[in-house]
Amino acid sequence: MRRWLWPSVALALVIAYPLLFSTPFQQRLGALVLLYAIAASAWNIVGGYAGQVSVGHVVFFGCGAYAAMGAYSHFALSPLVGIPIGIVVSVAIAAVVGVPTLRLSGHYFSMATIAVAELVRLIVTNTDYLGAGVGLSGPTVPRNLFDLSFISALPYYYLFLAILVTTLGITWWMTNSRMGFYLRAIRDSERAARSLGAPASRTKLYAFMLSAGLTSVAGALYAMMFGFVDPESGLGILISVKMLIMAALGGAGLLFGPLVGAAILVPLEEISNNVLGGKGAGLTFVLYGAIIVLIARFQPGGILTPIMRLWSRRGKAPEIPVATGASHAP
Amino acid sequence: MKFKHIIGLLGAAAISVGLAGHASAQQTIKIGAVFPLSGNAASAGNHAKAAIETAVEIINNAHPELGNFPLAKDAGLAGLGGAKVEVVYADNQGSPATGQNQTLRLITEEKVVALTGAYQSGITLTASAIAEKYGIPFVNGESVAANLTERGFKWFFRVTPVASDFAKIYVDFLKDMKAGGAKIDTVALVHDNTEYGTSVASVVTSVFKDSGLATPLDVAYAANATDVQSQVLQLKEKKPDVVIMVTYTSDAILYSKTMQALDYKPPMIIADDSGYSDPSFIKAVGKISQGVFNRSSWSVGPKGSPTALIAEMYKKNSGDEMDDTAARQMQGFFVLCEAINRAGSTDPAKIQAALKATDLKPDQLMIGYKGVKFDDKGQNVLAAGVIIQLQDGENYVAVWPKGSAEKPPVMPYKGW
Q1: Average pLDDT estimate for A78-83
Q2: Residue B383, CA distances (Å) to A139, B164, B298, B314, B404 in order
Q3: Rounded Cα distance, A303 and A294, in Å
Q4: Is pLDDT at B24 greater than 50 in this prediction?
Q5: Domain check: are B249 and B146 in the same one?
Q6: Could you tell me if B268 and B357 are in contact, meaning their C-beta atoms sit under 8 angstroms apart?
């Protein structure tokens, strides 16, 4: 029974967080942590477990965001309608892009995904239907509940929490399925995995598609919360980099790695901006960058790795995945 | 263990946020300003900050030398017993999401009574959306995207002119020039294919049609061009009386060079701000673009005039000359403070009511608007601009309308 004690306490605390820290900004901070944790967890499936470091995941994020805002601005539908559309489109893109690019190994795969992401950004910037350079906006004054346009961050917090739990559930299920074992084998040595009969290409593609679909949900949720998407905020390369850094910082290839990374980086970014941003010296990013450098120097496997090791030494967890995400990071 | 750490971190984070938000003194009116103080547009954001700091200096200290200018004469806001204005700056980092987060923080943690910002239209959009939800007045002085005032907002006010206002300025200017003997029967409209180029071009075309002027000949080209000879040759062949240029800096420079290379001088060139206002345009090709007209809402005015004094104070703060954007931001902030002063209260609803009742005259402004008066959508209906001309190839001077002209317009286009 003691095995479940700490996880349940942790879950209870996460559920109670917005009630314990109840100012609007603190609640929003909590919601943002969960939102970025969803995106980084989705990235983790292909970047962490499969070891394919995609720097083009923003394409899928953008698909979700644009689908949600497009459903509202072109068809006056609830942005929620955009979620399934975004999933279908991004899974299709992942399939089309994945077949040729997943043959590339290491840095070449990363470079190919960057190229795809920049290409999509340029196409969208020149497409009037998608708002071109101006972007698409969502409902500001909600017509009904389904517009998901709230003043308080509380509804977003619990919505994001539910989706994060689902995402982590899918990831957990995947790691314990045949596919999860294939993925770990491929990550450690693709050649060895192939020689033992693991269908490497197909497995990587499935992981890429699954990851793409979940990333697009994160994008749709982002657009709903902020009510706006333009090429820079929906398809800018920084978003891909953020997903990657969060996963690597917490521990890529670990179930809770991205969540831990998001829980560190999002508050760090917001609070350093609160304190230093108004000075106008760009100090925010200096501090932000310095902390990332320190963690990368002293804990390159991610924050969670030593904790997991400690845990396993006490004989409570039977399995520790080896975190290699950070060493893959470009 | 792991979740405890997260909670611990979040807790520490939350506490520091809480601590940061508890410093309010009596007799200060807190206003939030969200600008891109870092990122791609950091230069524009820091100029905006300098402009607002200059405005605060004017409001909080006695400046009788500025004449009829509102809030200058006394120290502080007279309507609130001489209360001082304090501006809380926030960095939007060039991201619509950060802009919205920071706006929320300014409203809920810093308890600002009103807001201004946020430079980029997309960020103004998300930042004003959260202000609308909380019922806090948001006054924008510089974002020109048309959709900002089409959202049915009740707390959003925009002081700056938008594309249709500029188009009307061109029409009035051209009609005046025609009365003075200039030929304006044919007009060519050269524009790039970006959002800026196409949207301005379509607005100009429709406004010209509505006001009975010739429908402009449309000359579109791909932005960041490497060669514009075919466009210039097309102009040379059609011989329009007026050429209107809607381009960014690098293309503007290329057009000037190509026109010289092909020895083509239209009788009149009117530029739509942007590229032609960039100091690097003047440095690169100013000497071969003498006599080009441009639009601006800002002009320094004669020495010793209130605007010249403000420009001097601004230069001391920022190290640069006042430009059109910084001036429009500063004017937006003055409009907001004037409304707060008139409301005599920090209650957002009363400030909103005062903003709605705003009716400023040209002599109460630092910029060339015909006044400030908001319509139901929150757009300033009296926003206007002046036509400036690059007569000597080095500095623009105001030439139209007569009331704000420093020199009479020189015709035809001289070039080099």
Answers
A1: 93
A2: 28, 10, 12, 22, 15
A3: 11
A4: no
A5: no
A6: no
- Rounded to whole angstroms, how far apart are CA atoms A164 and B305? 61
CA distance B153 to chain A (A): 9
In Å, how far from its chain's centre is CA A45?
10
Residue in chain A nearest B133 by alpha carbon: A151
Residue B409 domain-assigned (yes or no): no
- Answer whether residue B376 shows pLDDT above 80: yes
pLDDT average, residue stretch B229-246:
94
Q: Which residues of A touch B145 (CB under 8 A)?
A: 134
Same-domain check for residues B168 and B181:
yes
Residue B412 domain-assigned (yes or no): no
Q: Which residue has 């961050």 as its token pair?
A: A153
Residue type, B29: I
Which residue in chain A is spatially nearest to B49 when comparing CA positions?
Answer: A280
Tell whether B238 and B318 lie within a shared domain: no
Whether the CB of B93 is below 8 Å from some CB of chain A: the reply is yes
Q: What is the amino acid identity at position B258?
A: T
Decide if B7 and A6 are in contact by the 8 Å CB cutoff. no
Minimum-distance CB partner of A28 among B4, B16, B104: B104
Question: Hey, are the CB atoms on A273 and B102 less than 8 Å from each other?
Answer: yes
Calculate how close chain B gets to A141, using CA atoms only, in Å.
8
* Mean pLDDT of all residues in A130-137: 82
Domain that residue B399 falls in: 163-296+386-404
Q: Return d(Cα A253, Cα A302) in angstroms, integer.
A: 10
Confidence tier at B296 by pLDDT (50, 70, 90):
confident
**Whether residue B305 is found in the same domain as residue B327:** yes
pLDDT for B8 = 52
Task: Determine the residue of chain A that is closest to B193 in CA distance.
Answer: A126
Q: Do A213 and A24 contact (CB within 8 A), yes or no?
A: no
Confidence of residue A294 (pLDDT cuts 50, 70, 90): confident
State which H helix or E strand residue A298 sits in.
Answer: helix A283-298
SS3 of chain A: helix, strand, coil, percent, to 5: 75, 0, 25
Residue whose structure tokens are 């990368």: A296
Looking at the 3D structure of chain B, how many domains does it have? 2
Between positions 300 and 319 of A, the ones with CB within 8 A of B are 304, 307, 310-311
- Rounded CA-CA distance A72/A229 in Å is 12
CB spacing of B91 vs A227 below 8 angstroms: no
Same domain, residue pair B127 and B93: yes
Residues B69 and B120 reside in one and the same domain: yes
Does the beta-carbon distance from B13 to A29 stay under 8 Å? yes
- Give the separation between CA B326 and CA B32, rounded to whole angstroms: 17
Residue B409 near residue B400, CB atoms below 8 Å: yes
Considering the domain architecture, whether residues B65 and B144 belong to the same structural domain is answered as yes
Which residues on B lie below 8 Å from A130 (Cβ)?
A: none
In chain B, residues 4-23 whose CB comes closer than 8 Å to chain A? 4-7, 9-11, 13-14, 16-18, 20
Confidence of residue A275 (pLDDT cuts 50, 70, 90): confident
Task: Please tell me which residue of chain B has the smallest CA distance to A6.
Answer: B1
How many A-B residue pairs are in contact by the CB < 8 A criterion?
A: 159
Show which of residues 237-296 on chain A sit within 8 Å of chain B, judged by CB atoms. Answer: 256, 259-260, 263-264, 267-268, 270-271, 273-275, 277-282, 284-285
Closest chain B residue by Cα to residue A20: B11
What was the pLDDT predicted at B6?
53
Does B133 reside within a domain?
yes
Question: In this structure, are B275 and B190 located in the same domain?
Answer: yes
Q: Would you say residue A330 has pLDDT above 70?
A: no
- Under 8 Å between Cβ of A119 and A212: no
- Chain B residues 128-157 with a CB less than 8 Å from chain A: 129, 132-134, 145, 147, 151-153
CATH number of domain containing B41: 3.40.50.2300
Establish if B239 belongs to a structural domain: yes
